Amino acid sequence: MARTVRDCFKAGRPTFSFEFFPPKTPEDERLLWTTIRELESLHPDFVSVTYGAGGATRDHTIQITERIASDTTLLPVAHLTAVGHSIAEIRAIVGRLADAGISNVLALRGDPPGNPLGEWVSHPEGLSYAGELVSLLRAHGDFTVGVAAFPYKHPRSTTVEQDTDYFIDKCRRGADYAITQMFFEPEVYLRLRDRVAAAGCDVPIIAGLMPVTNMGTIQRSEQFSGAPFPAELGARFAEIAHDPKAVRELGIEETSKLARRLIDEGVPGIHFYTLNRSRATREVWANLTSAALTGGSTG
Predict the structure, then answer these.
(1) Could you give the residue numbers annotated as active site?
(2) Contacts of 179 (CB under 8 A, 6+ apart)
(3) Which residues contact 39 (CB under 8 A, 6 or more apart)?
(4) Which pTM value belongs to this model?
(5) Rg (CA), the chain
(6) pLDDT at 294 (0 to 100)
(7) DSSP label at 268?
(8) How far apart are CA 164 and CA 150, in angstroms?
């Protein structure tokens, strides 16, 4: 079994992975572990655990990641952000992860607490960019390091070209792979991949997907991705907004088609944003598995 995400790419097939976030209540905690157990049966290549804005869920993120590592067969990736932390604090967190045997980290600059699009202010004794966090991790242990990629560009980047330069810098500092923010059109991912390849960078870029299961998902996607939801697809959902079941069915269908198209285009991996629930992800997974077994395509 692979023990690093870097090893997962050696299998010669697309990786599949899931993302969870630290729960806020005991009920949410139970839901999370039910979801983890349900998705564990699918044998994903790895799972990741997010880190709250401003480091708000730091300890809980580490605790969940440690428990996944010790109590399940899953390979966990811990998110780590620079926002709100001094370099000394980050080094202490990195040491704790290493002591727990966690060698896979997703290095992120992070969003300001309270308002993801608010002014980003560096800790006076901290870091300013995700690339600096990559360098720190590289200097403090044998970590497999992932970073974020932005198909539309990061909301704070002035241009797509500038955003590409920032991404290349993270890779040159030692990133092993990247996971994109969510997107809903294959061309958006393919353009990103082409831009990065044209700059001479061959770091694997995993596609981050989330099925639309209700109309609220569309609103959240715009906040998370920093880009408007595709107008044509949005109009199709708007036509059936009165029928929650139909909305969900269309969301599963479209995500299955998107994942299949990306696999056909040679994507190195698919990463599902689960929102700590397993049903929609398992349905998309089943569609992909069925298509693979029949030699067909969902698109």
Answers:
(1) 19
(2) 48, 106, 146, 147, 148, 149, 205, 206, 208, 271
(3) 18, 47, 274, 278, 281, 282
(4) 0.91
(5) 18
(6) 41
(7) S
(8) 9
